[in-house]
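Appendix B, Record 12. Input sequence as logged:
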Amino acid sequence: MQQSDFEPISRASVPHLDAILGKAFPVLDDGFVRLVDYMGSDESIVQAARVSYGKGTKKVNEDRGLVRYLMRHRHSTPFEMCEIKFHVRVPMDTWRQWIRHRTANVNEYSTRYSVAIDSAQTTLPGEWRVQSGGNKQGSDGFLDLETGKKLTQKEKELQTLTNSIYQERLELGVAREQARKDLTLATYTEAYWKVDLHNLLHFLALRMDDHAQLEIRKYATTIGDEIVSKWVPYTWEAFLDYRVQSLSLTQYDKKIISAYNKSGKQGAINLAKEFGLLDEAGSTSKKSRERDELETKLHHLGFEIPWV
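Logged structural output:
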């Protein structure tokens, strides 16, 4: 190929994103998310996808349609061509969940080298959540306000005490790496977090979900609504349509819904018993998270629950 055969190359620029570079979007009482840098755009995804087909394909597939096709059929590689870097301030307990996503490049504020950030997440009296009865790792509802006031006061006392002890250790010459050991998990930390778009969307799909812990859900929602939606609008639209607001049907789901449509409620009940989602009498006394999830899907699709 001759040099003249190559298409011109220029760095992707998204004006809406350039306008918010460095802006701190507040999360929780003292946390934030800041956009530090980015590489690529919707056009970069399209460009990467079309490399396989050569010239001329743009006349056949418009950019938005191609992005939606890639998302719909879970073609991940073109989305990996885009990267983004954030600066975040987040409570340590929330950061523990965040860092479990091992698909990013991370550099965290070190309390071995530096004094810990003098800030900890606090809880308002009306924000103390009750442990869920059906989900061992979730919450459901809130404690009464009077109980919440007592817990908030005790939280303040605990955080004040631990910070005082930490500062005392530092003043006495204790090494930072040891002095920090009794800081609460509510203490804020900061990090730079760089991730490609494919893995970022996977993170957002999990952490924006209603089942995710509220605190990390607020960070994910801020990243999605305030930053990603402006960065790659075609991708964000497709992501909401095909991942966030879609339904995934299992083999059991498909067969039971088909039987429901063809044979009515009894047909669906018979299959549900066969698959172990109901007991032999067709009762829901047997606990089944899979059945609960199916009932939610039936509700969204406008069906009555056949065994209720």
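The mean pLDDT is 93.
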